[in-house]
Amino acid sequence: MERVVSGIRSTGNLHLGNYFGAIRNFIKMQENHNCYFFIADYHSLTTHPNPKDLHSNVKQVLVEYLAAGLDPEKATLFIQSDVPEVAELNLLLSMNAYVGELERTASFKEKVRKNPNNVNAGLLTYPVLMAADILIHRATKVPVGKDQEQHLEMCRKYARRFNGMYKTEYFKAPEPWNFGDDLIKIPGLDGSGKMGKSEGNGVYLSDTPKKIRKKVMKAVTDAGPTEPNSPVTEPIQNLFTIMQVVSEPDTLTHFKEAYADCSIRYGDLKKQLADDIIKYIEPIYNRIQEISADEAYLQKVAKLGAEKARESAQKTIREVREIIGFKKF
């Protein structure tokens, strides 16, 4: 059985793009694979979050992933900082990571460009911590987006480097997991690109119906078709794409035909889309409210996840220490 490890950002609410992208695939994966999903709160420290925000963000992300369908009985769902072995493996791997290669990573150079006043060591060694997250559970597969491919390749390098240095075959070089056609890309409401937190163009699973309607009614459109069968512009195609995953097929057909014969009214399109989004995410939204109020359940989930993750992590650390040469007197 494949061992799969994937990190979850500990900041921000989940939006439709997250749900139709990674989350639905995680839900499928947990049925047939040994999955470790962790909330990456160590990684968030590079931005120096307020202590109160750090905890509330972790709680919100945990709540929303549970509400969306991750099952703590089927997968190991845990908080990164609950597994101190990750920090120890990060330290051990950092001894074989070199400043030059870390400085050349695209993500580090981009962070330096955007935040020149916060170029901390955590940003520089981010790929090492990511490697520790993966290798601590001896993962064979890692779901990665385009922006993380270089980091996974560095993880593979560190695994091979460790093996070469200590003349062992302990770590396998994990392979990227590409969802392919199963990955649905949801565009934002701003007329271009993808839905994302930093773009401010998303509909979140925790949004109230009122907030969803307000967001959708402000969605970017165009001046409208002027001739029958005109090509669909990007802003309208984006709305059709969202409608394709939340609305009935007949609804989408109706508005596409209205666009083709120039009878479409964008106000009606947006109203229908907002209603369909609200209906689609209602079960998840209601579950978010229930889980948020159940502190005992959240404590149980976090404790179970930490126990399962530490069982795997402690075994790895024990064996790595033996390979390196640490011995008790």
Automatic annotation (TrEMBL):
Residue positions of motif 'KMSKS' region: 194-198
UniProt-annotated binding residues for L-tryptophan: 133
GO CC annotations on file: cytosol
Record EC number: 6.1.1.2
Motif stretch ('HIGH' region): 10-18
BP GO terms, sorted: tryptophanyl-tRNA aminoacylation
Localization: Cytoplasm
Primary residence: cytoplasm
GO molecular function: ATP binding; tryptophan-tRNA ligase activity
Swiss-Prot/TrEMBL catalytic activity: tRNA(Trp) + L-tryptophan + ATP = L-tryptophyl-tRNA(Trp) + AMP + diphosphate + H(+)
Keywords: Aminoacyl-tRNA synthetase, ATP-binding, Cytoplasm, Ligase, Nucleotide-binding, Protein biosynthesis
InterPro entries: aa-tRNA-synth_Ic, Rossmann-like_a/b/a_fold, Trp-tRNA-ligase, Trp-tRNA-ligase_bac-type, Trp-tRNA_synthetase
Enzyme class per UniProt: ligase
CDD domains membership: TrpRS_core
UniProt: ATP binding residues: 9-11, 17-18, 145-147, 186, 194-198
NCBIfam families in UniProt: trpS (TIGR00233)
Family of the protein in this entry: Belongs to the class-I aminoacyl-tRNA synthetase family.
Function of the molecule: Catalyzes the attachment of tryptophan to tRNA(Trp).
Subunit-structure text: Homodimer.
PANTHER family: TRYPTOPHAN--TRNA LIGASE, MITOCHONDRIAL (PTHR43766)
Name this protein carries in UniProt: Tryptophan--tRNA ligase
Gene that this polypeptide is encoded by: trpS
